[in-house]
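chain below, 118 aa
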Amino acid sequence: MSTKKSPLMRAKEEFGSKEKLVDRLVILLGSVNKSDEEKDSLKGRLLASSNKKLLRLFEVTSEIKEKYGSLEKLADAAAKALGRAKDAPYVAKLKTFSLGRLLDLARAAEKRARATAA
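prediction:
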């Protein structure tokens, strides 16, 4: 019988420690989301977060980096999937969404587009 690993066990197994996970997240977030926040303050906030949240954030940012490359490209892809690519204020509003919310929106829109095409 297989038991589900705790977030602490997963973080230690996959990254070695919480600090190493946070270091990788800071680098990954810096490449995906261009923000004005200093890396030290971001690292401090992430170290205070739970392991479960950190693992989820790592999965989301990794998927965005692999599939879309940046937050701007993800917002453009989501707007295109929703049929509102030419609506500049809407695309600008999408760029203010959190990474997770925007990724979920893009996934749902792509799924809906595939369902109507089939």
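The chain has a mean pLDDT of 88. Residues 1-67 form one domain.
thats it, cya
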